[in-house]
Amino acid sequence: MAEKVLVTGGAGYIGSHCVVELIHAGYQPVVVDNFSNAVRGEGGVAESILRIEKLLDTSIEFHELDLLDRPGLEKLFKKHSFSSVMHFAGLKAVGESVEQPLRYYRVNLTASMNLIEVMQTHKVRNLVFSSSATVYGDPQRLPIDEQHPAGGCTNPYGKTKYFIEEMIKDHCRAEEDWNAVLLRYFNPIGAHSSGLIGEDPQGIPNNLLPYVAQVAVRRRECLSVFGNDYNTPDGTGVRDYIHVVDLAKGHIAALKKLKENCGCKVYNLGTGRGYSVLQMVKAMEKASGKEIPYKIAPRRGGDVASCYADPQLAEKELGWKAEFDLERMCEDLWRWQSMNPTGFCNGTS
Question: In whole angstroms, what is the distance from residue 327 CA to residue 270 CA?
Answer without folding.
Answer: 16
